[in-house]
Amino acid sequence: MKTYFAIASASAALVSLFVFSSPAYAHMPQAQPPGIARTDLQRHDLTAPGREVVQVRVDFAPGVVAPKHSHPGEEIVYAVEGLLEYQLEGKPPVTLKAGEVLFIPAGANHRVTNVGSGNAAELATYIVEKGKPLVVLGK
């Protein structure tokens, strides 16, 4: 049994080394705050040179705030469930309920808060520069 655990640990280390040293790792978001779960759905190159589309479902526990951040391209938000408040720098807050959409310009610092009493979720579609981190924490 000790041999099995040693092999499993070595395998996990090799997988971690491969995943975290691969070019795909550059697209992985930075650590998320507790209460936020990101599920990568798809990623495809676009015909525009150096651009790609990334689609992600983001779930927010009640009261959770995603800190100020931006993206290296445009974000199109579709609210899946709950109530989400978006604060784009220099603009009044916008609250979305399920079925509503929001366009966030490239590089715009913004934060998101689940202002409802239950879970909230968005489908985020990004049109971004390939090879750059998807999420950049705001200043």
Question: What does this protein look like?
Answer:
It contains one helix and ten strands; from the N terminus they run αββββββββββ. The protein has 139 residues and is mainly beta. The strands form two sheets. A five-stranded antiparallel β-sheet has the order 1-2-9-4-7, with no helix packed on it. It has a five-stranded antiparallel β-sheet with strand order 6-5-8-3-10, with no helix packed on it.
Give the helices and strands, then pairings.
Elements: H1 2-21, E1 36-45, E2 51-60, E3 65-70, E4 73-81, E5 83-88, E6 94-97, E7 101-104, E8 110-114, E9 120-129, E10 136-137
Antiparallel strand pairs: 1-2, 2-9, 3-8, 3-10, 4-7, 4-9, 5-6, 5-8
Short description:
This protein is mainly β. The protein has one helix spanning 2-21, and strands at 36-45, 51-60, 65-70, 73-81, 83-88, 94-97, 101-104, 110-114, 120-129, 136-137. A hairpin with a 5-residue loop joins strand 5 (83-88) and strand 6 (94-97).
